[in-house]
Amino acid sequence: MLNINMKNILNKNIFLCFLLYSMFFLFDESIGYFFIRIAFLLGLIKFIKYKNIYFDLNVLNKYLKPFLVFGLIIIILLFLHGLEYSSVSRYERLIKIMIPFFTGILFISDKKQMIWIIILLFFSIIINDIYSIYDYFFQKNNRTYGINMGSLYFAGILLLQIPILLCALKIENISKKKKCIILSVLFLTLVTIFTNGSRMTWFIVIIDFIIFNILFIKSYLKKILIFWGIILVLFSLYNISSNINSKVNNLFDVNNISTRGHYFYLRDGFNLFLEHKVIGVGLDNFKEQILNDNLVSEESLINLKKDLHEKIDDKYVMPHAHNDLVMFLSELGILGGFIYIYLFGSILIYTFNNWQIGKDLWSLSMFLITINILIRGLSDYNFANIGVISLYFFIYSLYLRYIFLSSDKNREKIKGKYIIFIYGIILFIILLRIISRYVIN
């Protein structure tokens, strides 16, 4: 009886940590990570004591293989680059943001828990949305960023919301009351996207609506009418809002600092890759190496004096190349480009195939969220806003757990070696960071 009570206590506390993570992550990352890491440790205690964590091993092998390849190739490249402290610290940070992912996959007990986690995540997002709208209309801030986030960070969080809300509208047998709530939250999110002022976010959301229109509206006449309705709304907003008007016009202004800067930084970053094609320059070495190789072009230099920049020995340098793929190529070489394409390409293929086979809305929303992240990565570096990527992978873990909980087949106990590997690799990287700081460097 004591064992049963102990097991229930562990389960309840793990679930409570999930809820607290969902509530606090978007207000203070450190608090959110604190609770999810407690859940991670409680999960280890639960496994050691009861050894009865179940999963579909086929799902593990299929969906987690790209993550394994991703992590192993980066660590191999770390050793090839000489285990510099900054590189190892960056890798440790990447590993730590995966803790919510593995905790979600292994320790969410049922779908009811999953629903509560999503509800609380959206509750914290809605609070940020309301604050942003207040900040824009009453505090006259022309570019809002939630309660405690940068504007680009907040833009990434908004892009995680839209696909879930759109797909939620298509849930079968949903009551009118719930549909009205979803529509209200969707409207609130769209207003917040306007106040956030990120042009790339505006563009991506338009794509989401177009894809949603193509997939769910059966009548071709309705598809065309909705498409032209979208055009009409956008045209009206362009003419009514001076904020939208100026931002759209700046997009085609070759003299605009923000617009031209993205091109110059991407070009210089790609040139850095061409100089170090095989293994790249190493994690977190982009800024130093692009200066050492004298690859900061004159156009970038002029732009950086007026744009966001960093200084190293009084020399201007861009913090990153404003492009996910170019950053992986420049820092990790050809293999870096491969693991980026392999990881996110696999997620796209799996989620879209699952949508086609079962018309599962979770799969479609995850597919659209991934599309959003990848398109955003064309003009910015998602991994610079690590909280966005962390939350993205946490949502993906909910999706994988949902697949497992929806199936009664192939439920097997996870062998101890898999759990030991997950916890062991995290401990190994932490020790590696200590060694790289106090022994190697």
Query: Judging from the principal axes of the Cα atoms, what is the shape?
Result: globular
Q: How confident is the prediction overall: mean pLDDT?
A: 86
Q: How large is the share of residues in beta strands?
A: under 5%
Quaternary organisation of the protein chains: single chain
Please list the strands of the largest sheet in the order they lie side by side: 1-4
Strand elements, count: 4
Instruction: Give me the Rg, rounded.
Output: 23 Å
Largest sheet: 2 strands, antiparallel
Walk me through what this model shows.
The model has no long low-confidence stretch (mean pLDDT 86). This protein folds into 2 domains: 2-216 and 326-440, no CATH class; 253-322, no CATH class. The strands form 2 sheets. It has a two-stranded antiparallel ribbon. The protein has a two-stranded antiparallel ribbon with strand order 2-3. The protein is an all-alpha fold and 441 residues long. A hairpin with a 2-residue loop joins strand 2 (310-312) and strand 3 (315-317). It has helices spanning 2-24, 29-50, 57-81, 85-97, 99-107, 111-137, 151-168, 176-196, 199-216, 220-240, 242-251, 257-275, 286-292, 298-304, 324-358, 361-376, 386-405, 416-440, and strands at residues 54-56, 310-312, 315-317, 411-413. Helix 2 packs across helix 5 (99-107), helix 3 (57-81) runs antiparallel to helix 4 and helix 15 runs antiparallel to helix 16 (361-376).
